[in-house]
Amino acid sequence: MTEEKRFAFGKNWQSFRVDALDARRIEEAEHGLERLFGLGALQGRTVLDIGSGSGLMSLAAHRLGASRIVSFDFDPDSVACTRALRDEHARADEAAWSVTRGSVLDEDFVRSLGHFDVVYAWGVLHHTGDLWRALTHAALPVRPEGRFAVAIYNRVEGALGRFSSESWTRIKASYVGGSTLRQDLMVGVFAAWQAAIKLSRFENPLREVREYHKSRGMSWLHDARDWLGGYPYEFATVDEVSRYVTHLGFRTDKLLPVPTDGWGNNEFVFIRDTA
Fold it and tell me: What pLDDT is recorded for position 20?
């Protein structure tokens, strides 16, 4: 996978951090972690944040009482963004929150990190270019009875009026390989299309834009660019992910699926068996 064909997630996250990251979004990130793990579940726990992006979820884990956090990302801009967020909000606890660059596809690197009570890989493994190897490596640091939280794009088959996952792969590749003008035009077309869908359902499209941060932790525009440009791009059904991780020695603790025809992330929390 060449660098020209990889979306610059880190630059998008840096823009989001400057433009839109505020106390409200930090609190909503905390609520998102509590939704996955439960109230008080991170207190005194060690956490590995794979593909930390802006660092928002690492910061949320820190604020929820995690005893030690390790954040890493493949994208150097994301690493810089996470480190800047840590320095802004938790410089006094720098020893308990380390930030580094690394790839989840590098097994030796992942093993060198040690073991954790919670491993969090939300919406990142399907952007590595090798989803199943990434999933295998991401599971390695989970200690027995530890939690493994992942979110993987849902596999969608094509139908009348609906793009398939394979179609989105081609769209994303076109976005990443295009000029700035093409990318801006694609965002505009995407916005108009989403607005038309909302209006056809007699819904207010502006309401979703205003309240988008409540469900995703970032602004609609930044997430639109993230979605259109998110290449490499892979996907899987709920059953495919569940069966695979079960074979790695886990059992399902929580499943938050999207509709079968939804392009979003199916969310999973697995627990590693003690055997």
Answer: 56
Do 78 and 204 share a structural domain?
no
For residue 118, what are the CA distances in angstroms to 45, 111, 114, 131, 193? Answer: 7, 15, 12, 20, 38
Do 94 and 129 fall into the same domain?
Answer: yes
The answer on 119 and 43 residing in a single domain is yes
d(CA 257, CA 149): 13
Shared-domain flag, residues 215 and 244 = no
Query: Which domain range does residue 225 map to?
Result: 165-229
Segment 35-83, tens digit of pLDDT: 999 999 999 999 999 999 889 999 999 999 999 999 999 999 999 989 9
Residue 149 exposed, middle or buried by CB count within 10 Å (0-12, 13-18, 19+): buried
Q: Do 131 and 171 reside in the same domain of the chain? A: no
pLDDT digits (tens, 9 = 90+) for 3-20: 446 655 545 555 555 455
Question: What is the SS3 assignment for 214?
Answer: helix
Tell me, yes or no, whether 220 and 267 share the same domain. Answer: no
Say if residue 259 is preceded by a cis peptide, omega within 30 of 0.
Answer: no
Residue 256: CB atoms within 10 Å: 13
Cβ-Cβ contacts under 8 Å for 210 (sequence gap 6 or more) = none
| 273's tokens | 């068996």
Neighbouring residues of 165: CB distance < 8 A, sequence distance ≥ 6: 153, 154, 155, 156, 157, 235, 263
